[in-house]
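Lab notebook page, bench 4
Experiment: in silico fold of construct C2
Operator: M.H.
Input chain length: 83 residues
Purpose: comparison with the prior construct
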Amino acid sequence: MIDLLKENPWLVVSGLALLIPIFGIVFGTITNYLSATRRAELEASLKQEMLQRGMSAEEIKMVIEATSGRIGKYCKSETASHI
């Protein structure tokens, strides 16, 4: 195996060129999954705590929509349309 690498040093470079993007994709996928899971856990615990405090479904909906960053990502804000 070492003789093969000594005879063909370009194999090391091409192997790294293939492995680095693969590791990057795997790392990005895993961290994205863990981040989404943690966000869902926090939102569920917030909802549970609000239910224990006796808040109505409409109040919980208002709080979740106000704290959620999802709305701003996909919808244009009113101020942006007036510019």
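Observations: Residues 2-75 form one domain. The radius of gyration is 24 Å.
Next step: discuss at group meeting.
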